[in-house]
Amino acid sequence: MARKQSKGSCVYCGKELAKAGMTKHLVTCSKRQEAIATAESKKGSSEAIYHLRVQDAYRNEFWLDLEMRGSKMLLDLDDYLRAIWLECCGHMSQFSLGGAFAREVGKRRKLNDVFQHSGELTHIYDFGTSSETVVKCVGVREGYATTKKPIALMARNNMPDYRCIVCDQPATHLCMECLYEDQAEGTLCDQHVKNHPHDNYGDPLPLVNSPRMGMCGYDGPAEAPY
Ligand SMILES: [Zn+2]
Ligand SMILES: [Zn+2]
Ligand SMILES: [Zn+2]
Ligand SMILES: [Zn+2]
Question: Residues 26, 59: one domain?
């Protein structure tokens, strides 16, 4: 749906950058360096902390840069992905190495065991209408976490630039009937959502920043849990 180069914002300094430049920016971002220095000045224990680039396998304009503590379990990552992107009706999920369904990795495994030599995990949510997410380890630092939580959100994509299928103005809603029955994108602006003729799948849903939009019963809120 979105055709422009995807952009996102750095959580630390607020700077907007292209997806391709974000990982590098986070390494040098002075505000992030300050947050790490503050963490290092407190009591705590040092551990391996992983920089993860997370993206939807098919709609790569949806991406996240996360930092996750090596002592935490994949279960924590599963919870996070469900909250920010995926949860619709409590479907099953699974992590695997070597591609979707290739070699399952138990959710109780710690990140330290999974990413010993870097690598790439695939996460599947819902074995029917599947959402497939690729989790890539792009860096490791030894040090103190900036949060007591398992994961810190460092950056995420901006809402893709959806356009109304009628007038090409920015879209705010999605019609599931257009999507499923007419193979149309189904994105509608504030004006054209008002008397849109379709209701077989209920009213058009407000668009949210998630790759699961338009799948199963997903209707957001697509907000980071922390
Ligand atoms: Zn920054
Ligand atoms: Zn569902
Ligand atoms: Zn319109
Ligand atoms: Zn429609």
Answer: yes
pTM exceeds 0.90, yes or no:
yes
- 113 CA from centroid of ligand 1 (Å): 29
CA of 205 from ligand 3 middle (Å) equals: 15
Ligand with minimal distance to 197 CA? 4
How far is ligand 2, taken at its centre, from the CA of residue 82, in Å? 11
CB proximity list for 12: less than 8 A, separation 6 or greater = 26, 29, 31, 32, 34, 35, 154
**From ligand 4's centre to the CA of 187, what distance in Å?**
8
Ligand 2 geometric centre to CA of 156 (Å): 23
- Residue 187: domain span: 173-206
Number of domains in the chain: 2
Query: Is residue 212 domain-resident?
Result: no
Residues 19 and 76 in one domain: yes
pLDDT per residue as tens digits for the range 77-99: 999 999 999 999 999 999 999 88
Cβ-contact 148, 133 below 8 angstroms: no
Average the pLDDT over 179-202 and give the result. Answer: 94
Q: How far apart are CA 83 and CA 77, in angstroms?
A: 10
